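Bench log. Compound arrived from synthesis this morning; before running ITC I wanted a structural hypothesis for how fe (ii) ion sits in the protein. Inputs:
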Amino acid sequence: MKAFQALLPPRTFFGKGSFFRIFEALPLKNRAVLVLTGKSSVLLSRQWQWFQEETGRRGLNLSTYRVSGEPTSELIDKIVAECASKQWDAVIGIGGGSVLDTGKAVSAMLYKLESVHTYLEGFPDSQPHDGSKVFYVACPTTTGTGSEATKNAVIRTTHPARYKRSLRHDRLVPDLAIVDPELSLSCPKDVLIATGLDAFTQLLESYTSSNASTLTDLLALEGLRHCSILVDAVNHLEDLDLKIQMAYAAYLSGITLTNAGLGIVHGLAGILGGMYDSPHGALCAALLAPAVRKNIRKLEKSGDRDTLRKYEQVGAFFRPSDLCATLGTWQRAFPIKTLRQLNVAKDQFSWIAQQRPNKNNPVPLDPEEILEILEESYG
Ligand SMILES: [Fe+2]
């Protein structure tokens, strides 16, 4: 067996009703908690009503910050500037991937004096973050990004140009992940499609990653098996059992992407997501089928039977028992938007293809092949 190292979430409460266990794990010394939520129906939920009453009953100082849109460096700096004077016991993010990443970044910046931009990866003057943070609880309300189990927060920055970059450290994995599928019952259909396809893509890319291990293979395959109900989950939004399966798949995808890395779809979605306002899940969905076809063709040429078998195994979870046919079915069933429909312009494709977005793709693709994926995804 190949040697590996693993970074796993320190503590997780998973399942129906698990949100109501939150006080079992909160360290309460200064008796102050900071909650970040989206502009979502969470604030009308019985879980939120209970949480407010319970914090009052326990004499806790509760501050709530509502955020919308993807996290920007300006937003993180603003929240930190407004909140840094208090001693917080915990930061709690309740929302979709953007809210969870905002909370993760805020918890990591409350002890810092600099802008979060200082610590974003990939700039010539970037500084590494040391991992110090306020105890962070991540409670997803969409079944997609897996942020509750990852060590990075994706932040949009406009300096020196529009980019999405990560704030990353092993210790930034949330101290507590609460995956209560009841929190995602009000998730709208379009969000479920985009986030579900993101989770599927993360699992598939980490399962076929050049950095995959025995452990990530086990977890990714289990997550992919649960994704076989994605179409049913989209068609039966009130079905809690189906939500539980997608929430489990999304949670596993966070663990596998943290440990195995991702491939060409996320490499390209990361660049495009920095340039355009299109949702991350929608970009992944547009790129997925052309990228899988390209990878399979190249693996057939190189004779990599082991990785080809992985694609076949995933295909066998669906009807028809073929991954490319299933992706074609999804394209029509959901439907999945093309890059053109997502208002992505073609004129930057050659530049994007030169940016080495291969990540841990199972097979390295040259700029010409990457350009073909982009053009096919454009429609
Ligand atoms: Fe993703």
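What the model suggests: The radius of gyration is 20 Å. The chain has a mean pLDDT of 95.
ITC booked for Thursday regardless.
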